[in-house]
Design a protein that fits this description.
alpha/beta, Rossmann fold, 2 domains, seven-stranded parallel sheet, 20 strands, 33% helix, binds adenosine monophosphate
């Protein structure tokens, strides 16, 4: 199959040739004809599957061949993304695909001044890429009208809900014209996403290009058990031992990112960090420098976990496990992209056992554990497996102590002297792991 057989027009084929895309990926092969035929789409596609071109190419073609010229302060297509970085990246891809077409494209997001964005929208843009909050601001300030909108794309819809954008999406929904084409892309499909799809989509075609909630199998994944306080030391040790060249590291909190970056920089290691507290320009600069290999270690919160396309990233390290198990899939999706192989290493301490278990249950695999000599944890990480169970190790029977009362104390029971009480059951009843709250979270 070629892009030409999918019915794409010559200016798009020419752009794809320049980019070196020869064969459509599975999501592209399914999505392109469906979108060209005007269908709504509900697509389960992991990052790295080529989903951006899957929606952008047919969208560009429809906008070129159909519909009136864009009016002032209007957009003909809107692509909603969860983060500023993803909006920039999607916009860059769309602009590349559109390089031979007479269409205008633009990206708007928060964290930067709104005035230049309002100026730019005056003439209208054919394709607007936006994060939800800034889109609403622009709409409320009359800088943007949506009555000319032909197509809405919800990219990384699950991430938008995870980041707490459900209210914004409901508001945007009320701003949209009833007659439109809607394409929803999501790496994972929770009940909330299905609810959103039920509201927003009209008789959608379902596309699933990878098994639900299964991480890319091109990524070799393992876990190194370690005590929490020794994680920074272990990280530096593994980095030196493995001669890591370029690593994306995920930490749970903004403070965690800053602390690790400080530690690495203190050791003369070329590291930088991105998280929600940093100004947009600083975040973008760190990301650009990492992409250009000017920064060796980029430490990030989950704000960077989704959608960012960094070519040939060989390694992702989970310094902390994510609180929401599905974020694990997105994090490790930063490596092993477009058919390359990658590695994902998670440093796991005893506190994180329930998160580990939830990840194994979600990805339906028991992650291999590799103990690092000299870093064996004092606080053992209990065994886990893909069934979602945490297995407590048998407790060693305590040595009976001689007490003043002549009896022996054994596991809390008093027994007559000379008698040894039967040990407690050797394996504690297996405990079900609590399901993690996947509801709206605070914005990162
Ligand atoms: P995405 O999943 O849209 O973020 O795309 C992942 C990466 O695959 C990006 O670097 C794209 O440029 C690249 N890509 C997408 N489609 C193709 C294709 N058909 N052939 C080669 N590379 C592609």
């Amino acid at each position: 199959m070629t892009f030409a057989t999918l019915g794409l027009i010559e200016p798009l084929l020419r752009a794809l040739e320049t980019l070196g895309y020869q064969t459509p990926t599975p999501v592209q092969a399914q999505a392109i004809p469906a979108v060209l035929a005007g269908r709504d789409l509900m697509a389960a596609a992991q990052t790295g599957t080529g989903k951006t071109a899957g929606f952008a190419l047919p969208l560009l073609q429809l906008l070129t061949l159909e519909g009136p010229k864009v009016a002032a302060n209007s957009a003909r297509a809107l692509i909603l993304c969860p983060t500023r970085e993803l909006a920039e990246q999607v916009h860059a891809s769309v602009a590349e695909y559109a390089q031979h077409l007479p269409l205008t494209t633009y990206a708007v997001y928060g964290g930067v001044s709104i005035n230049p964005q309002m100026m730019k929208l005056r003439k209208g843009v054919d394709i607007l890429v936006a994060t939800p909050g800034r889109l609403i601001d622009l709409f409320r300030q009359n800088a943007l009208k949506l009555n000319q909108l032909q197509t809405l794309v919800l990219d990384e819809a699950d991430r938008m809900l995870d980041l707490g954008f459900s209210e914004e999406l409901a508001n945007i929904y009320r701003m949209l014209p009833k007659k439109r084409q809607t394409l929803l892309f999501s790496a994972t499909f929770s009940d909330d996403i299905r609810l959103l799809a039920g509201q927003m989509l009209n008789d959608p075609l379902s596309i699933e290009v990878s098994p639900r909630n299964v991480a890319a199998n091109t990524v070799k994944q393992w876990v190194v058990p370690v005590d929490k306080k020794r994680k920074p030391e272990l990280f530096v040790h593994l980095m030196r031992k493995g001669r890591w060249k370029q690593v994306l590291v995920f930490a749970k909190t903004r403070n965690g990112v800053d602390a690790l970056v400080d530690k690495l920089q203190g050791l003369g290691i070329n590291a930088d960090g991105i998280h929600g507290d940093k100004p947009q320009a600083t975040r973008q600069r760190a990301l650009d420098r990492f992409k250009a290999s000017e920064v060796q270690i980029l430490v990030a919160t989950d704000v960077a976990a989704r959608g960012l396309d960094i070519e040939d990233l060989p390694l992702v390290v989970n310094f902390d496990l994510p609180i929401v198990a599905e974020d694990y899939i997105h994090r490790i999706g930063r490596t092993g992209r477009a058919g390359n192989t990658g590695e994902a290493i998670s440093l796991v301490c005893a506190d994180e056992v329930n998160m580990l278990s939830a990840i194994e249950m979600l990805t339906r695999q028991t992650l291999t554990r590799k103990m690092e000599p000299d870093f064996e944890p004092e606080h053992r990480v209990p065994d886990t497996d893909a069934s979602g169970q945490v297995v407590k190790k048998p407790k060693k029977p305590k040595k009976p102590k001689v007490s003043g009362g002549g009896g022996k104390r054994n596991l809390g029971k008093w027994v007559d002297s000379g008698e040894v009480a039967p040990a407690e059951p050797s394996i504690k009843p297996v405990r079900k792991v609590p399901v993690f709250n996947t509801g709206p979270r605070k914005k990162k």
